[in-house]
Structure formats: structure tokens, C-alpha cells
Write a structure and sequence with these properties.
The protein has about 325 residues and is mainly alpha-helical. It has 2 domains: about 1-90, no CATH class; about 115-320, MetI-like (MetI-like fold), CATH 1.10.3720. About 70% of the residues lie in helices and about 0% in strands. The chain has helices at about 1-30, 35-40, 50-60, 75, 80-85, 100-135, 140-155, 160-175, 190-220, 220-230, 235-245, 245-255, 265-270, 275-285, 290-320.
Amino acid sequence: MIAYSLRRLVYGVFILLGVNLLTFVLFFAVNTPDDMARLSIGGQRVNQEAIERWKIDRGYDKPLFYNDQVQGIARFTDTIFHDRSLPLLRFDFGFSDEGRDIGHEIRSRMGPSLALAVPTFVLGLTVCVLFSLLLVYFKSTPLDFAGVVLCVVLLSISGLFYIIAGQWLFAKTLNWVPYSGYVAGLDAWRFLVLPVVVGVVSGLGAQARFYRTLFLEEAGKDYVRTARAKGLRESAVLMRHVFRNALLPILTGTVSAIPLLFMGSLIAESFFGIPGLGSYTIDAINAQDFSIVRAMVFLGSSLSILGLLLADLSYTLADPRVRFG
């Protein structure tokens, strides 16, 4: 187990190097430091002197990968890639193009992101699993058919529709909850109720249908028929046998998604005005702030690798037969 984990972590380091390099190349393939300076200063009619001053202040006056103006190892270290991207490997996010500490912004925005993502994740998983088990309990009945139709309808509708419809109905028409915004403390629940409900409903169709398929596959196996033949109640068969043995595929999606909860939701946070990491990333993309974009991509990649590792390790808890060599 320890050797397997260390091997996966070593692989993860190489993956992060590749992601970091690819992000850097893609960003500067469509954007130049001059374009970034014009966007930051404002307008296309900015004189070249102001552009050069902006680049010097932020370190964008250097070459991207190779500096032939210096000697020795400085040819590789005195570059934009070395100064702005390699420090990410020690989780030094540096400063944004506007001069703000990215690490401080991430720490301050992580709370609102988790306040939205954790309830949405827990409630969504609970509702989807229970709804799927209910459909399996009443399989081949009108209730099962109606549930499948509902799932298809829900997954066929764009997530933006749920957000706009929820804001119009519950915030504007009924005035039950605020339209958007966020406050820290106990009053935050008033601003989180609507986005959490929208998140649960928008994900119900696809996840419930997937879980129903898993449970039906397990329900048709021989050990389940044996359990029924011994006289176990259907509810006991579903919970003690079907659900437990269908846990491995569920763990693949749920455990691996836990670290990504820190990243927040790009769409929900932007529409509901929640100052989390999701809206922070969207604002950085709109402003073409390369420092923030590369930091968030690197952080997301790191959390994804951690999530996949946790998913693999959790298999041994759900199924003792699983062993890693």
C-alpha cells in the first residue's frame, strides 16, 4: 500500500509538470505580454512606453524559456517560465498581475466555496442514492417508469435553466431568499439555500439514473436471489447486499470528487455572487490574468491527482479483496 501510494505520487509530480508546461504554452500561444499589458492598462491606444513599464514591473520583459542575453544557468533561470511557473511545484502561487497575493486570495475564498460545495455534494449524493434505491425497490412499476422519465427530463435541461428559473421563482417572485450575494457567519445559509437546492436538482437526473443502473445490475445477480430465497425483506436485500456491493463504482466518483470541492463551482458562484474560488477563476479568465489562471489550473490538477489516489485507497475499505502490488 505504501509503495503503491509513493509510486502514484511520483507519477503525479510528472503529471503536474506536464500540466504546468502545457498551461504556460497554451496561454502564451494566444496571448503575448503586450496584449496582457494593454488589457490591464486599458485600451488599445496605450503607448509603448507604458506597456514596457508594465512588463518590467511584473517580470514579463524576459524571454519565455531561454534567455540568450545572459550566461550560464541564468539562461534558463532568468525567464518567465522559471520565475512564474516553476515555483508552483512548491505551492508558491506568487502574486497576480495586479499585485495581489494569490495564496491569500485562495485561503480567503476557500471558505465560501466549501460552504456551497459541501452541502451540495452531501445532499446530492444522499438524495440520488436514496432515490435510486427507491426506484429499484419499485422496479417494473409505474413509479419506476415515472422516476426514469423524470431523470431523463432533468438531465436534458441545461444547468443554467435551473439557476435562472430558481432565481426568478424563489428570489424575485416569492422573495423567499436573496437573489445573490454572500455574507460570512451564521447568516450565510440564507444565501446558500437556493444555490444548494439548484445544485442538487440539476445533478439528480444523471446521477440517479447511473446509480439505478448499478443497483439493478447487482440486484439481478445470484447472491441477491439467494438472499431473497432465504426470506430476507426487500429493504434488507437492497441495503445489506445490493448497495454494499455497488459501492465500488460509487466510490470512484464520490471520493475522487472530495478534494475538488475546494475549487468551488464556476457557474453557480458566478451567477449567485458567491466570492469563492470558482468566481475567482472566472474573473481571472475574463481579465486574462495568467498568474491566477495557472495557479488555479495547477491547484485543480493537484487536487484531482489526490482525489484519484484517495479513490484507489478507499477500494480496500469497501472491498477487502482489493490489494495493490
